[in-house]
Amino acid sequence: MRINRIQDQPIARTDWFTDARFGMFVHFGLYSIPAGVWRGQRMGRNKYAEWIQMQGDWPHGIPLNEYRLLAKQFNPTRFDAEAMVREAKLAGMKYLVLTTKHHDGFALWPSAVSDYNVVAAASPFGRDIVGEVAAACRHQGLVFCCYYSHWLDWEHPFGGRPHESEFFSEPRWPQPSDDQFEIYWQEKCLPQVRELMDRYQPSLFWFDTWAANSSAQINARRIEQLIALVRGKDDRCLINSRIGTWGHPRGKQLVDVISMMDNKFPKTGMHRPWETSGTMNDSWGFHQLDFNFRSTRSLLGNLIGNVSRGGNYQLNIGPRGDGSLPPASIRRLREIGAWMAVHAEAIHATDACCFDEQTWGHMTLRRNGPTSARLYLHLDGERSESVLRFQLPDGLNPGEAAMLETQQPLISRRADRSIEIKLPDPLAAGDWIPVIAIDCQLTDD
Ligand code: JFZ
User: Which residues have CB under 6 Å of ligand 1?
Assistant: First the structure.
């Protein structure tokens, strides 16, 4: 067996991230006000409310001078960073990634670089959202991280415009020339990232490009420049792969965290930090007509699946235009929190123990010392029999097995390299995902 976390391995910069396993993504901005509806009409082919600027008045997009009027309406008096962070903590999340500036170019902090920001443009609100969230995270012990749209910026005349067919209209939006994009890059993107580093000291920068489309603008030189800027300010700050690994021949080696495409849950793991960002429904920003919420059970399944493959899960919420959290999101967070209240030790600081698929569910492993570990069996798959049989990972010598929630001892029988565990009857009824913990000795083979 390969146990990922080798005991004598030096502490890595990414340890806080891989130990965390579960984080909150927050999409909040001017788009949270129209929330998917413009002049009484549901917008766009793309389901993302935060894209409404490019979708309104389909297929032309909302003219910038009209969209920017939203800033005057932006007055999210019910936004409560401490309460939001409390929800994240209760759900068992260990970090939070906030959209400091999404594609619309609007900054949620009082940026000296651009007046298109929450204090200068959004009167009478006048509060620093990024500052409040960063402070609440520090106060409650959550790791604070920044999302920043470095490629697309629809306020700056020379920021990137959408390319992807699912997002854009015909005729296509003209792209800025390389010289023009350089102006955006130098006068808005880099200075704002510098400002965020200086003022809020995020522990991770979640940048956002995708597909080869971005690589003309987000090329190797600019990627290196941006990485050097962040690392020059704080060499512990992590950077995700959506900074634009397509635009750099060694892109994937330069970053700390590999980000999957949205809501993509790979069927196998990889031996480096990675994450999937996912939504509860089909939109990141709050969408008033998106009722397509996933069940708590399936969100938990996403978390368990990723963690069993050595990955993280960054689950999104989109506060409403007034700053309040949608009840549907709160319920899911709290139900996840109820499961985590009992099962967090099977998630936090665990590793993949093997990437093999099991029909009955997923395994995670927590090392407790040089020779001892705990193996967790998450029963989120099919259980047709009252006996669980599976191949033991090499290098694990199993001892006592018990239900994690109740400590109910379970009878297990070892035969060669496989193990049989008799499941209690009935096993946690309903939608619940039970977990079995097995104390193990680590052996050298
Ligand atoms: C991007 C943003 O456009 C979106 O608004 C949101 O912030 C999300 C987290 O990231 O959306 C993407 C990026 C990549 C793909 C789809 C949506 N993709 O290639 O599958």
Answer: 48, 50-51, 208, 210-211, 261-262, 277, 284
